[in-house]
């Protein structure tokens, strides 16, 4: 995928526009192309930003006194949420307060709104309302839209579709019910069904897609990294002169981040800033993640300053992303900044990969004390290092510090915890033993190598030869040369002592 994209949707999106024209066009006979299921199944994180979908379908209804009454009822329901019989009884006792006979059922919608963080309980409330509806107190399309969305969040896609059909049978099919079912499909990673439903909606003469509809498509295409389709959808929005909202921009930015298209991400953000729409918290969090992944530390720090308190308290993954960005940078004070961020991450948020990254960082910077602290954490959590390059970084740090005792201790622990074995580890130990004239321990190193199935190589024997030769150990020099002959290694004549 080329990274040299410009902010336009003509030539680069031409093929995608042809695709979209199949389900944007007027022909009812053309069968829409569906995103392949094997691609759709890759989407397992489509719930990101789903809370934003809520504002597309509903505004918080009701007066402050009504909100207060529903808050009390919500607390009662939450306390009894494990007992469905008790939940129904509470709802029956409060049926009058729920204003079921009032047009629109504002009190009930307020209750569903307040139960947004508990979708399974909210769905119970919706089903109670559905079962208590009658000719004098019918359901409306707004309530069905809410129920469809709740079923999707509870991962009950079949029930969401059943509610959609029920609303259609009652003549309540609307843009909102379409949007709710599309959102349910999106939430559950069913991109092909979401797109197919959009095609059905385009053919429905009673409904017109709204900005919410297109926002859902932007989210689906962005999550699948189908950038051309995402851009063509955005072009379609502009062609229809729909009012863009913050969700539109956020899904566009998110799509570029998923595709690692940093220039386009920045252009989308600048376009947002120049529009009447204002960035929200979600926007800043997205941009912070994008700048961290792209290694743009200056803008990452600028964005972090805008949302610092929120990130420090609730966005631990973003803190980890920032640490990764610093680890890959050449900033002189990056370790100080990393240490500040690490203090914000609770112990229960430990991640093996991050700890290994820190080991590598401290080793490369030759911060032996910090490296050993990170090694201890890895051993305590049973985190193995399986990469030779990282093992070599650790070895080099011990070698440059001439820390033989620490190296020997590390070797013992690494062996017992099943870390990656490599000859460099033992070769370094041989060199350091020779440098400190612990010649009697050098043969022990060969046995250690055999115990981890590492055979003696020509390099191993040459290291021992040079150590013995430099120390004037003529008998050990000859013994080592004999081992080299035994293993079939060539030895120059000048290597023999005179």
TrEMBL record:
The keyword Repeat applies. PPR repeats lie at residues 245-279. Keywords: Repeat. Signal peptide: none annotated. InterPro entries: PPR5-like, PPR_rpt, TPR-like_helical_dom_sf. One of its GO terms (molecular function) is mRNA binding. The keyword Repeat applies. It holds the Pfam family PPR_2. Belongs to the PPR family. P subfamily. This is Pentatricopeptide repeat-containing protein At2g30780-like. It comes from Abrus precatorius (Indian licorice). The lineage of its organism: Eukaryota, Viridiplantae, Streptophyta, Embryophyta, Tracheophyta.
């Amino acid at each position: 995928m080329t990274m040299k994209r410009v902010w336009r949707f003509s030539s680069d999106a031409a093929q995608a526009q042809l695709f979209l024209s199949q389900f944007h066009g007027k022909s009812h006979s053309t069968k829409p192309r569906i995103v392949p299921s094997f691609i759709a199944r890759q989407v397992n994180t489509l719930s990101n930003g789903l809370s934003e979908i809520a504002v597309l379908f509903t505004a918080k209804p009701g007066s402050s006194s009504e909100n207060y009454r529903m808050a009390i009822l919500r607390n009662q329901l939450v306390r009894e949420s494990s007992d469905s019989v008790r939940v129904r009884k509470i709802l029956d006792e409060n049926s009058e307060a729920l204003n079921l006979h009032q047009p629109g059922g504002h009190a009930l919608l307020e209750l569903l709104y307040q139960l947004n963080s508990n979708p399974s309980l909210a769905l119970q409330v919706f089903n109670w309302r559905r079962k208590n509806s009658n000719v004098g107190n019918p359901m409306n399309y707004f309530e069905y839209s809410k129920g469809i969305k709740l079923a999707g969040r509870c991962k009950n896609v079949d029930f969401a579709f059943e509610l959609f059909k029920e609303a259609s049978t009652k003549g309540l099919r609307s843009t909102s019910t379409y949007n709710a079912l599309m959102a349910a499909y999106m939430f559950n990673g069913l991109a092909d069904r979401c797109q197919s439903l959009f095609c059905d909606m385009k053919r429905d003469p009673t409904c017109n897609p709204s900005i919410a509809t297109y926002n859902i498509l932007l989210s689906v295409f962005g999550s699948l990294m189908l950038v051309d389709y995402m851009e063509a959808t955005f072009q379609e929005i502009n062609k229809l002169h729909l009012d863009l909202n913050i969700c539109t921009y956020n899904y566009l930015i998110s799509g570029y981040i998923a595709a690692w298209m940093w220039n386009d991400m920045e252009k989308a953000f600048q376009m947002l800033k120049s529009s009447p729409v204002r960035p929200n918290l979600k926007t800043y969090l997205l941009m912070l993640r994008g700048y961290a992944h792209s290694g743009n530390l200056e803008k990452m720090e600028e964005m972090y300053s805008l949302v610092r308190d929120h990130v420090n308290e609730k966005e631990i993954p973003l803190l980890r992303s920032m640490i990764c960005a610093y680890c890959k940078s050449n900033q002189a004070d990056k370790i100080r900044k990393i240490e500040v961020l690490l203090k914000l991450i609770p112990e229960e948020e430990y991640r093996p990969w991050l700890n290994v990254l820190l080991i590598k960082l401290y080793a490369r910077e030759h911060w032996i004390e910090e490296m050993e602290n990170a090694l201890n954490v890895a051993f305590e959590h049973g985190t193995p290092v399986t990469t030779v390059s990282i093992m070599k970084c650790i070895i080099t740090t011990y070698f440059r510090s001439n820390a033989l005792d620490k190296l020997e201790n590390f070797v013992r622990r690494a062996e017992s915890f099943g870390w990656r074995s490599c000859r460099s580890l033992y070769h370094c130990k041989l060199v350091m033993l020779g440098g400190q004239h612990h010649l009697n321990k050098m043969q022990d190193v060969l046995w250690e190598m055999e115990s981890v199935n590492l055979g003696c190589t020509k390099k191993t024997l040459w290291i021992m030869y040079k150590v013995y030769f430099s120390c004037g150990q003529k008998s050990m020099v000859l013994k080592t040369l004999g081992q080299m002959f035994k293993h079939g290694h060539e030895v120059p004549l000048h290597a023999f002592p005179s």
